[in-house]
Amino acid sequence: MNDSLEILLTNDDGIGSTGIRVLYDALDEHANVTVVAPATDQSACGRSISHSVEVSEHELGYAVHGTPADCVVAGLAELGPFPDLVVSGCNEGANLGEYVLGRSGTVSAAVEAAFFDVPAIATSMYVPVEDGPLSAIDLTGENFADATRVTTFLAEHALEAGVFDHAAYLNVNVPIADGEPAPIEITRPSKRYEMDAERDGDTVQLQDRIWESMDPETIPDPDGTDRRAVSEGRISVSPLTAPHPTNHHKTLEALADTYAESVGISGSRA
Q1: Fewer CB within 10 Å, N- or C-terminus of the chain?
Q2: Which CATH fold topology does 6-263 show?
């Protein structure tokens, strides 16, 4: 990595989180890093955007009183030098599976960058939680060793290697560090979805049951998926695009023709 590389660093846990500090310290050794991150925790806010946000100067850069998407727009369009790369993270908690891509503020920051045609890396760390909330776990900088190591490596090499010629952003998920560097697996997001709801009087409790089956001996996700890789102690790197296109749909075209006939529209489709 060379000192002329410009990186915009953001997250969704807030500018005061351990995860963004360790990434900043690692990336700042070899690149010009501008931090534009939420002033407070904005987890699971997706790509929510604001019309106006207050900005405060911070020792790391800028604290934005808004969402990760706000931070990326403000950082790219106004606050910092236009970067070569956007890095989002490191999130305290994994972002695995297709269903989290639009929900995660960490991933959404990378998606926002993609619409600016800026390559991005979203990095999250899986933290096993048996009882109680994730926020109750005291994470230290050492826990993020795999996250800082692989993110720094990708920031240094992915641009020149042409990775972003075929991917808009990389969704990176790492296991919590246990001393030995974890290997990398190139993956696809798992398709599993196990949200559940239960009514209790005037309240409906929503529960994401997918995290109940992360045991590598019993996890049902197939080989090649992000969830299986992380559950088995590997770093998952999923190359993704934004927006997410589908194949040309001839059946839908035929249905459009039928609609035109039903309402009396003549002539070819635009």
Answers
A1: C
A2: Stationary-phase Survival Protein Sure Homolog; Chain: A, (3.40.1210)
Residue ranges per structural domain of the chain = 6-263
Please write the tens of the pLDDT for every residue from 58-106. Answer: 999 999 999 999 999 999 999 989 999 999 999 999 999 999 999 999 9
In order, the DSSP letters of 109-136 are HHHHHHHTT--EEEEEEE---SSS-GGG
Q: What is the phi/psi pair of residue 92, to 5°?
A: -90, 85
Which residues does the annotation place in the binding site for a divalent metal cation? 12-13, 43, 91
Provide CB contacts within 8 A for 50, sequence distance 6+. Answer: 66, 67, 70
| Binding annotation | 12-13, 43, 91
Residue by residue, what is the 3-state secondary structure of 34-62?
A: EEEEECCCCCCCCCCCCCCCCEEEECCEE
CA 213/CA 266 separation, integer angstroms: 54
Number of H helices, E strands in the chain: 6, 11
Residues 4-20 have pLDDT tens digits of: 899 999 999 999 999 99
Whole-structure pTM value: 0.92
Paired tokens of 136: 């109750």
